[in-house]
Design goal:
Length: about 375
């Protein structure tokens, strides 16, 4: 609704400027414009109208560059309004309204440009050759982890060296906060473990964009509202550990990474196994919980939780929806998960995700 109203505002403001052009070239008479307009100035009225009209078209087509033309349009518009203040002063209100939408659009565009640069620096030039995973290769894993490999149907297939996936879901920032829908794209590398997660959330009039990066053993979470207001800009040792923990947990979507040289396994009992990942100077451990068939039910670990009093180690839990199992590229994975903090004053479920598409060992088109 608000998007439609803003589109109508752009169109109406554009058409109003055509009145100045028409008056200058004596194409029509408008009593609203009592001050004479010369033909050279009339050309500027036309240019302003065209800039706003094209901006409206790009906005309708959801092209993020619409704001660039709108900037030129409202600058010219306000110049003309000052020149013809008696007749056109109320056009300032429209320009202010457009500016209020334009600024976050510009900020969002700039932040997405930064994310695109981060993505370019993250993606490998080529995907490393993927060896076929054999039964002999999994023989040293705990029995339940071997069952996981069998259940996932990764044995006999090329190991996952690169992963791309798309997600939908919802998130909230506080235990009693409102849920906000999101869409996300994520890429993983396995030989040199890392990921980049890019998500769009929030409302159309107040978009929130997140970029979570784990690369070369370092993590960096950056979240901005409207591309202008920084909600989170977290990095450092605790974030490095948390990013590694996230990577380890999310191997549920590319199970052959369980055989990574950076991951060691320890059997706990017939249904639980502990995985410890070491990369660089950082170490992270978590417990994988399976059912009797080898399907991965959940993941539990201690992860740093950021709060006003500082970062504290808290229980972090991921629960997979066992009815959501699907096959992508011949590999069976859970597609729906709920992520929670199990805090002393109660559980805080803050993220719900569903994988809608997933590809292995295939770089995206750039």
């Amino acid at each position: 609704m608000l998007r439609t109203l803003f589109l109508l505002l752009l169109l109406a403001h554009s058409l109003i400027h055509l009145m100045g052009f028409a008056k200058a070239f004596e194409l029509a008479t408008f009593t609203q414009l009592s001050t004479p307009i010369s033909k050279p100035v009339g050309v500027f009225w036309l240019l302003t109208a065209l800039l706003l009209l094209i901006a409206a078209l790009l906005f309708f087509l959801k092209n993020d560059a619409w704001w660039m033309l709108a900037v030129g349009g409202i600058v010219l518009s306000q110049w003309l309004i000052f020149a013809y203040w008696h007749d056109a002063r109320y056009g300032t209100i429209a320009n202010v309204l457009i500016l209020l939408v334009l600024l976050p659009a510009a900020g969002t565009w700039q932040f997405k440009k930064q994310i695109a640069a981060d993505l370019h620096g993250f993606l490998p030039k080529v995907v490393p050759a993927a060896p076929v995973l054999t039964q002999a290769m999994v023989a040293g894993l705990p029995p339940i982890v071997q069952k996981w490999m069998e259940f996932s149907q990764v044995i006999g297939k090329p190991m996952q060296q690169f992963v791309s996936l798309h997600q939908t879901g919802q998130m909230r920032l506080k235990p009693n906060g409102k849920w906000t829908s999101l869409t996300a794209t994520q890429y993983f590398t396995v030989t040199n473990p890392g990921f980049i997660w890019m998500a769009d959330a929030g409302k159309p009039w107040m978009p929130m964009i997140a970029r979570d990066l784990y690369q070369e053993g370092k993590g960096h979470m950056l979240v901005k509202t409207m591309g202008l207001i920084t909600v989170a800009n977290a990095q450092g040792p605790t974030i490095d550990q948390g990013s590694m923990m996230r990577y380890l947990a999310e191997t549920c979507w590319f199970p052959s990474a369980a055989l990574s040289a950076f991951v060691n396994w320890e059997a706990i009992d017939s249904l639980h196994a502990k995985a410890t990942m070491r990369f660089g100077s950082v170490e992270a451990s978590g417990v994988f919980n399976f059912d009797a068939n080898g399907a991965l039910k959940s993941f539990d670990a201690l992860r740093y939780y950021s709060q006003k009093g500082g970062d504290t180690l808290e229980k972090w839990h991921i629960e997979n929806d066992m009815s959501s199992v699907r096959t992508f590229d011949g590999v069976v994975i859970p597609t729906k998960s709920v992520v929670s903090w199990q805090l002393k004053d109660g559980d805080f479920s803050w993220l719900e995700l569903e994988i809608t598409d997933l590809k292995f060992n295939e770089l995206p088109l750039q």
